[in-house]
Design brief:
It is a single chain. The protein is mainly alpha-helical. It has one domain. The chain is built from nine helices and two strands, in the order ααββααααααα. Helix 7 crosses helix 9. The longest helix is centred in the middle third of the chain and has 18 residues. The relative contact order is 0.17.
Length: 183
């Protein structure tokens, strides 16, 4: 659900900010949100474990732009249709099996990879566990996992233009980045 146009739009802002980050604009309907058709996630430029999401998303994004593609889904098939997360699951299981074989101290041989790990929830669960282990505060975790409290009457939020929504996100950016920094 990552929008390519939005990724391009906020690329420079994330790279020039005091805390470099990647804005991941998701388009669609989201659980617990009324009136919004997008959600902006922010992740750090480089995690404490050395992962560099901004670098790799930037390279992929640039490869699309170089082919004249500037709109639609970031993760797309040859026809430009959105690639569903399940498409990546066989590759994900294969990599986990490789880790299990080469580093059993990280992933026990007793674990059935395809039963224990699913691409739909494993990443969020793993990131949340890592954040907890690294002392990230519950409200910072909740802000990223979307279990936020509704501050306005009847739990609704006004529909905002994406630019206005990003301004709102920037006001709490450091708070939000604590989650991805811990990964």
């Amino acid at each position: 659900m990552v929008d390519l146009y939005g990724t391009i739009k906020y690329w420079e802002a994330g790279g020039q900010a005091e805390f470099k980050h990647l804005v991941v604009p998701l388009l669609g309907r989201f659980k617990g949100e009324t009136g919004e058709t997008y959600h902006l996630l922010c992740t750090v430029d480089r995690t404490n474990h050395g992962l560099e999401p901004r670098k790799w998303v930037g390279r992929y994004m640039q490869s699309l732009v170089d082919r004249g593609i500037r709109n639609g889904h970031l993760f797309r098939d040859a026809n430009g249709s959105r690639m569903k997360a399940g498409y990546f699951e066989p590759q994900f299981f294969h990599r986990l099996s490789q880790v299990q074989q080469s580093n059993p101290e990280l992933l026990s041989q007793d674990i059935e990879v395809e039963e224990e790990f699913g691409i739909f929830s494993s990443f969020r669960q793993g990131a949340t566990s890592e954040a907890v282990n690294n002392g990230v505060q519950p409200d910072q975790i909740d802000a990223n996992n979307r279990w936020r409290k509704m501050y306005q009457a009847r739990g609704s939020r006004p529909t905002l233009a994406m630019r206005e929504h990003y301004t709102d996100v920037r006001l709490t950016l450091n708070h939000r980045l604590m989650f991805s920094r811990a990964s």
